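pinning this so it doesn't scroll away 📌
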Amino acid sequence: MSETNAGGSMPFSLEYVRHSIAKIASDTTGDDVDALLQTGRLAIGPRDAVEFFVRLEAVFDCTLGRMRYEALSIEIDQLAVEVLAAAGAQSHAARPI
């Protein structure tokens, strides 16, 4: 499964998105990337969750609609699928007719 970014130039695989999510979470919270990937789950406090989504949306040039001040608890795979869908929707919307 892969999508392209808004410019249509770089394919995103599910595995790439999973690793990017773990890296962004690690940069935000200080958690270990490998540990996050091993557990397959994110658990991020409210303040860090907002920062995490700002970074995630910027990297994938998409809008996820999750900018709320609340704790985040989600499977990495589930979030990766959401990111791919949102990035794909943005990519299709950005294409000229």
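📌 and the second one:
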Amino acid sequence: MTTTTLCTTPSARMMAALSEIYGDWLKAEGLPGMSADELMAEEVTPLQFKWLGHFCDAWDAVCEIEQLEYRAAKAG
């Protein structure tokens, strides 16, 4: 069972999926396990830097969705 099956909200499932993708990518690239924004400050290739930037954009978008879900649930 993957982590994505344990999450209940759409944003939680998306975050779990992104986390899994990120972990797989780090392993494939031979990079250390650190946050994407921290890794962008390290010495990475231009292609890795671009990938990390897109990943951060996707993560930020899911965080916005999570906030919307929270507000909708709170409003009832």
